[in-house]
């Protein structure tokens, strides 16, 4: 079963990524596990300003960015990042290789919205490195940049049932970041839009279609994987379709694993909507199948695709041991999880150590690792200069000024949603400024009210010399910020696993986190005398501003 396999691989990724470091106020000792030190060429500017500030660091000449640049530094032209040539070859292969197909709504970097995309890519790569055959099945979103796909080719033309009709569907094969991907493209309006989510089509019905289209392709193509690994509510209907339809046709071999990355969304749907994919929705409106317990006795009662996936999958995995315990104790799905406890497992996520590697990261102005950490100082100053957090003057004989060494930089990279502790992020901005530190927030909000609140914060802080609030998403800038950070803040109210704290440690930053979910499984407090050997960050438990202040105080 893949849940056992993914446990070994996820923990391997995690253990390889963790760098232990002792923190004493502003000073850090950085440890990394990476490959050879290398400083890449200067970033190429498509349209550089007339005058640039040059500085010499070691044998390299650096061109420092400026807020006045016509093109922001994170939108420069970067070297190609083909991770396929970097897949580790020295990893022990499993003795019994299997074929795994991931069915998912997201995959980094081509269709990434949150951590789901990162985890799918990282796990697929880890399984490949262990000798398994792996495919990822993904909707062919109209917004996907096709130049990021290698060897893209149409492999199958077939029909998929939806709402009483058979919809012409294309399946394409390509390679993304070294991972084989099968793209499903319907001829109807599904997955047409500027973004992964939020198109003008009915999103729930689109993923119902996608779930059946994936199984239909396996049947048409004669593909019988050992494991079909589905992710989140978007593919929660696939286990129902498999066991109640396709297992009675020609798909006999596969077993199904469901990973729950975040139990915030349940995939609520009506019986009629489920029926559009060819199942009889009324059959699933019972406590032991897929009824949404919260709607029992209501008119109409509703179904939950996530609950159905839990009931019908052979194994159910969530992304950290602590989050497993939390989900068994709270939330309306707790009773369903308890009834299925024998197949429910908590396995800690890992990060993709090929994509997230400061020794080889193409987005950094300088690479670094434990034995040669000097590049981290360059990355910090580069970001500070580019965002206007330091004066453009340099000290004589020292290209990296005093402020870079002595003013701590806190980075918070997050979706701006309630789960992430918005009031604590706001308090951290205030407290960091009071204590004389610097802080950068990178993220955007889907809720208009939250977006306006942070726009107001940005307007009041972004002209100063200590705070930058950047309301956007940028993969390139996120890499640079992790490399620049002294501390990474993750103050989540709840957090199934969290990747930011692990990426931060991988890039030499100290995590400051709230003790919940996967944060509790990966970050251990410096002040915990009973756990000195594991200490690697600062941890607070309360959801109040005072608790956050106590954790931030020693850092700044």
TrEMBL record:
Hey, which pathway is this one from? Glycan biosynthesis; starch biosynthesis
What is the name listed in the Swiss-Prot or TrEMBL entry for this protein?
Starch synthase, chloroplastic/amyloplastic
Q: Name one GO cellular component term.
A: amyloplast
Q: Which keywords are on file for this protein? A: Amyloplast, Chloroplast, Glycosyltransferase, Plastid, Starch biosynthesis, Transferase, Transit peptide
- Intracellular or extracellular location(s): Plastid, Chloroplast; Plastid, Amyloplast
| Principal subcellular localization | plastid
Species of origin: Dipteronia sinensis
- Give the enzyme's EC designation: 2.4.1.-
- The yes or no answer to whether the keyword Cytoplasm is present is no
């Amino acid at each position: 079963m893949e849940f056992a396999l993914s446990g070994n691989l996820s923990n391997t990724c995690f253990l390889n990524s963790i760098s232990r470091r002792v923190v004493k106020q502003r000073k850090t000792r950085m440890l990394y596990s990476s490959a050879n030190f290398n400083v890449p060429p200067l970033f190429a500017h498509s349209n550089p300003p007339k005058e640039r500030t040059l500085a010499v660091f070691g044998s390299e000449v650096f061109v420092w960015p400026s807020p006045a640049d016509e093109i922001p530094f994170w939108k420069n032209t970067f070297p190609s990042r083909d991770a396929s040539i970097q897949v580790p070859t020295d990893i022990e292969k499993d003795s019994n290789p299997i074929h795994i197909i991931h069915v998912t709504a997201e995959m980094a970097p081509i269709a990434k919205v949150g951590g789901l995309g990162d985890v799918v890519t990282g796990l697929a790569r880890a399984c490949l490195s262990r000798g398994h055959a792996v495919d990822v099945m993904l909707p062919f979103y109209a917004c996907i940049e096709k130049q990021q796909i290698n060897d893209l080719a149409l492999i199958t033309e077939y029909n998929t049932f939806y709402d009483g009709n058979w919809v012409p569907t294309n399946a394409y094969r390509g390679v993304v970041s070294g991972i084989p991907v099968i793209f499903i493209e319907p001829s109807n309006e599904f997955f047409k839009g500027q973004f992964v989510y939020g198109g003008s089509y009915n999103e729930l019905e689109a993923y119902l279609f996608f779930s059946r289209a994936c199984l239909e392709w396996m049947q048409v193509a004669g593909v019988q994987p050992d494991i079909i690994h589905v992710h989140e509510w978007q593919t929660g209907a696939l286990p129902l379709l498999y066991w109640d339809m396709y297992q009675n046709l020609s798909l006999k071999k596969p077993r199904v694993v469901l990973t729950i990355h975040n139990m915030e969304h349940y995939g609520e749907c009506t019986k009629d909507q489920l029926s559009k994919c060819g199942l009889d929705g009324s059959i699933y409106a019972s406590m032991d199948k897929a009824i949404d317990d919260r709607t029992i006795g209501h008119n109409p009662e509703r179904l939950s695709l996530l609950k159905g996936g839990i009931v019908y999958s052979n194994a159910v995995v969530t992304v950290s041991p602590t989050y497993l315990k939390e989900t068994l104790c709270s939330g309306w799905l707790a009773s369903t999880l308890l009834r299925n406890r024998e197949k429910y497992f908590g396995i800690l996520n890992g990060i993709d150590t090929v994509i997230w590697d400061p020794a080889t990261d193409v987005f950094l102005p300088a690479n670094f690792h434990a034995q040669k950490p000097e590049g981290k100082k360059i990355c910090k100053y580069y970001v500070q200069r580019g965002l206007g957090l330091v004066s453009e003057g340099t000290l004589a004989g020292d290209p990296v000024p005093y402020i870079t060494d002595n003013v701590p930089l806190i980075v918070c990279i997050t979706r701006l949603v309630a789960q992430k502790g918005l009031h604590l992020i706001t308090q951290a901005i205030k407290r960091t400024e009071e204590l004389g530190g610097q802080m950068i927030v990178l993220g955007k909000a889907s809720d208009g009210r939250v977006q306006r609140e942070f726009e107001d914060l940005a307007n009041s802080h972004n002209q100063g010399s200590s705070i930058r609030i950047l309301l956007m998403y940028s993969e390139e800038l996120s890499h640079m910020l992790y490399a620049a950070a002294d501390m990474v803040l993750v103050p989540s109210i709840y957090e199934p696993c969290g990747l930011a704290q692990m990426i931060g440690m991988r890039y030499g930053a100290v995590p400051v986190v709230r003790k919940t979910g996967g944060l509790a499984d990966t970050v251990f407090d410096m002040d915990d005398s009973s756990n000195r050997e594991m200490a690697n960050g600062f941890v607070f438990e309360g959801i109040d501003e005072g608790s956050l202040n106590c954790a931030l105080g020693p850092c700044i």
